[in-house]
Amino acid sequence: MENAVTDATLTDETSTGATPSTSEPILVAIDGPAGSGKSSVSRAAAEQLGFGILDTGAAYRALAWACREAAVDLDSEDAVSAMLDGWAYAITLRGEQRVQVTLPGGTEAFDVSAVIRTPEISGQVSRVSKHAAVRVRLNNMFRDIVAASGLPGVVIEGRDITTVVAPDAPVRILMTASPEVRAARRAGELDGESLEQVLADITARDAKDAAVVDFLNPAAGVTLIDTSDMNFGQSIQAVIDTVDKARGAGPSNDKER
Ligand SMILES: Nc1ncnc2c1ncn2[C@@H]1O[C@H](COP(=O)(O)OP(=O)(O)OP(=O)(O)O)[C@@H](O)[C@H]1O
Ligand SMILES: Nc1ccn([C@@H]2O[C@H](COP(=O)(O)O)[C@@H](O)[C@H]2O)c(=O)n1
């Protein structure tokens, strides 16, 4: 993969505002199904902790977008892997999330921050994330991004972070919520999508994704946070409490197995 760059190329608001750390960042690994609140809760928790946030789903989404733009067959593992040889990908770890992609052979860095969130991309992304070879390469890219971040800590969220990308992270969380709660939250964000449609979409995506990685059951040592009956603030606090507990301080309301 050419140039998997992060904050450094994405202007001011992405800079950490602190002396870059020279040691490995502390990792907070968070997994969960679609709409569980991983991204938004992780982002808010990261801000409180003074950490960066790496949204790994954004890379899969950007890859699906790039393949569609370049008329690459999303179901072909070889063709999608070839896209990884030629593209350039950049994501901010601090401040507003910005995602940029340069297509193979191109020079323009497209800002795909908004388009990767559309239902069209959500509906196609599992076609690229199902490929084992693609996952291995993106997982290496995620580890490289974190290692090069210069941040004191990074919250990294996705589907296989607690189990594959960072199984040794000192804090590992599975964030979940009932399908109905997740659909209601997501429907609130999407204009013109009925609750039934959103529920059907996230259920279908979870089923496809769960065939590749298990993000519905916490692995040994992973803290389960079910946010079904929590508001946004309580969900953030549950993450902070879990981090504090791992650091040997403060309360905890988690369930471990
Ligand atoms: N505990 C909560 N209470 C109320 N709303 C919440 C809570 N957690 C998250 N939300 C809201 O639910 C929506 C979905 O959250 P978010 O996008 O973070 O989920 P996600 O797990 O990252 O989803 P995806 O995997 O589809 O990207 C957002 O509008 C978010 O603000
Ligand atoms: N670690 C990950 C993260 C994401 N995926 C795939 O990307 C899709 C989009 O992820 P969001 O978190 O933005 O919803 C998701 O549906 C998976 O197909 C993944 O496989 N592994």
Automatic annotation (TrEMBL):
ATP binds at G32, P33, A34, G35, S36, G37, K38, S39, S40. Residues 28-243 form the Cytidylate kinase domain. Keywords: ATP-binding, Cytoplasm, Kinase, Nucleotide-binding, Transferase. Residues 1-26 are annotated as: Disordered. Its main location: cytoplasm. Its EC number is 2.7.4.25. It is found in: Cytoplasm. Residues 1-24 have a biased composition (Polar residues). CDD domains: CMPK (cd02020). It catalyses: dCMP + ATP = dCDP + ADP; CMP + ATP = CDP + ADP. It comes from the Bacteria. GO terms for molecular function: kinase activity. InterPro entries: Cytidylate_kin, Cytidylate_kinase_dom, P-loop_NTPase. It holds the Pfam family Cytidylate_kin. Belongs to the cytidylate kinase family. Type 1 subfamily. NCBIfam families: cmk. This is Cytidylate kinase. It comes from Leucobacter albus. The gene is cmk.
